[in-house]
Amino acid sequence: MKLQALDIAIIIAYIILTLLIGFWISRQASKSTQHYFLGGNQIPWYMLGLSNASGMFDISGTMWMVGLLFIYGLKSVYIPWLWPAFNQIFLMIFLSAWLRRSGVTTGAEWIKFRFGSGPGANLSHIIVIVFALINVIGFLAYGFIGIGKFAAIFLPWELSPEPYWNEVYYGLIITALTTVYVVKGGMFSVVFTEVLQFIIMTIASVAVGLIAMQQVSPEMLDQYIPEGWRSLSFGWELGLDWTGIMESANQKISEDGWELFTIFFMLLLFKGVLQSLAGPAPNYDMQRILSARTPKEALMMSGLVSLVLYFPRYMFIAGLTVLALVFFSKELNNMDEVDFELVLPFALANFIPAGLLGLLIAGLLAAFMSTFAATTNAAPAYVVNDIYKRYINADRSEDFYVRMSYGVAIGVVLIGTFIGLFVTSLNAIVQWITAALWGGYTAANVLKWFWWRFNGHGYFWGMMAGMAGAVAIPAFFPEIAPLNAFPAILLVSGAGSYFGSIYTPTDDLEVLKNFYRKTRPWGFWKPVVQAIQKEDPGFQPNPNFGRDMLNVAVGIVWQTALAAGGIFLVIQDYRQLWWCLGVIVLTSIFLKINWYDKIEGEEAY
Fold first, then answer.
1. Which residues contact 155 (CB under 8 A, 6 or more apart)?
2. What is the spatial distance between Cα 420 and Cα 294, in angstroms, rounded to a whole number?
3. Which candidate in 295, 496, 519, 583 could, as Cys together with 461 as Cys, close a disulfide (CB 3.0–4.6 Å)?
4. How far out from the chain centre does Cα 474 lie?
5. pLDDT digits (tens, 9 = 90+) for 578-593
6. pLDDT at res. 600
7. 140 vs 533: CA distance, rounded Å
8. Does the bond joining 521 to the residue before it have cis omega, within 30 degrees of 0?
9. What CA–CA distance (Å, rounded) separates 281 from 276?
10. pLDDT grade, residue 233 (50/70/90)?
């Protein structure tokens, strides 16, 4: 498409501003590796929360979610549980505080805190680094695919007559620019630029929702959607039939394999709860939690993410989806092969006015940059802190370690970009990361919190078995969807975790006592609690399992209502919007009383 001069000027000015901010604050980030990776634990919780929300407002994920809403309607609010989206609720209620109390810099350092420094701990330390780097590279490939597809439609220069190579070249250029500012700025750069991006994207999201409300009436929308599209409820089957409206949507539902929606929903919930209990994967989510000033601020930061992100983001997603349904369905029906991941850029290109379009494209490009930057920032922490400093040389200068971090960041970007050249579908890589790769992560990382007998050897073998399953099942059984493979991967990983623990010695009791004193998780810790009570008779175990899980259940309802409310507003279904707002108010009051007031009165350090 041809952008107006105003739009091009806004995009160029915004990207230059973002790069300048990264260089401007790079002096602060280069003081030490603690400043580079965690901002010196000096960044306020609300800025970390806005930064985290901005990092989730990425192009690739938003393109995927617009495509989901287009096809699945309101029921699409459940599908991001694949990530799982509600892991933010578990972090908000209790897990962020447990993690932050450790005082470490990376997830691999946390392994030493949990398992000590014996042979099993060393094996665990190595395997979590391997997982973290695979996870980072997978997300960099995912980001590269999304930005290439997006930029090839919007940016005015045709770099190649072949559409595929046009996407590749744009992906390479924008990835290179992003790498420059994250390498220089570290966590300070990530957070400060993301706060700016979040503010701009929130304003633009509300504007897109209002444009859709002005241009599309409920009656117009009804002509382009099947019965049940507006409903959050579902039966045994999905209950959406696009026959006579858009046959390609029926084909996509069949390819996804989610027609038996109750089974799909139960799998999402089962997988999501277990993966959330495992805690954050060793990526940018964990880095922001460890960057918080205190455990209490880590909880508040995680809670802020859902509060500020969901309603405006879903106004944006719903606005573009509604415009595309009404004004773009004819073109989609005429296509030989429909790529629903391109609904977002096509809707932006055709229905958003000049000026606002430039701001939105700039914001989405910057959102890509921030997500890419946050992901990239996680990798050097593992290579520098957890490999080089621990196993090779711990006596070099801080300046050397920061420069080494620059090189590692560039290296993982190159690898992720190379892999992205060979993957064409966002949905495919999302499902592999969230179901297969994280499926291999789940069992060992649930047990590390809740079972005292689980040791470093068990962690190593559980992770090894899970990662092997995540690679082997898609390779040898490609007909099995990653989500359907999750139970098998979980079982294999769980067996490796259990047998690896019971056939090897218990971890050092002093290490377990130190971990439990600081972290105080609930779970099966009776022998450790009894050992601590011999030294400190007044010590009490964590009694809050019931309260925490009740708050989690209420929090998931709260988060889902925030998402659905943004959609109901844009499609002008005011009756269901009022129901959503009522649920949001009631759940907010409940969480204020049973969560926030309780952390105010508890020791958070």
1. 3, 11, 170
2. 37
3. 496
4. 22
5. 999 999 999 999 999 9
6. 61
7. 47
8. no
9. 9
10. very high
CA distance 511 to 113: 7
**What 3-state class would DSSP assign to 173?**
helix
Mean pLDDT of the chain: 83
Q: Are 47 and 191 in contact (CB under 8 A)?
A: yes
Q: Determine the Cα–Cα distance for residues 579 and 592; give it in Å rounded to an integer.
A: 20
pLDDT-above-90 percentage for the chain: 42
158 φ, ψ (degrees, to nearest 5): -90, 105
Compute φ and ψ for 403, nearest 5 degrees. -65, -35
Closest CA to 92 of 304, 239, 339: 304
Residue 31: pLDDT over 50:
no
Please give the pLDDT value at position 33.
43
Q: Do 267 and 483 touch, CB atoms closer than 8 A?
A: yes
**Maximum distance among all alpha carbons in the chain?**
75
Tokens coding 184: 């220089």
Return the DSSP state at 524: B
Q: Would you list the DSSP string of 317-353?
A: HHHHHHHHHHHHHHHHHH-SS--GGGHHHHHHHHHS-
* Tokens read off for 51: 């930064």
DSSP H helices in 335-424: 343-351, 356-380, 398-420
CA distance 193 to 7: 20
- Rounded Cα distance between 212 and 9, Å, is 25
In sequence order, the 6+-apart residues with CB closer than 8 A to the CB of 407 are none
Residue type, 58: D
**Amino acid found at 342:** L
Q: How far apart are CA 459 and CA 131, in angstroms?
A: 12
SS3 451: strand
Query: Looking at this protein, which amino acid is placed at residue 277?
Result: L
Which amino acid does the sequence have at 446? Answer: V
Q: Three-class SS of residue 281?
A: coil
For the chain, first and last CA: distance in Å? Answer: 54
Secondary element (H or E) of residue 39: none
Can you list the pairs that 404-408 forms with residues at least 24 positions away whose Cβ atoms lie under 8 Å? Answer: 404/380, 405/33, 405/36, 405/37, 405/183, 405/186, 405/380, 405/381, 406/183, 406/184, 406/380, 408/379, 408/380, 408/383, 408/384
Of the two residues 83 and 298, the one the predictor is more confident about is 298
Two tokens at 47?
Answer: 């800025």
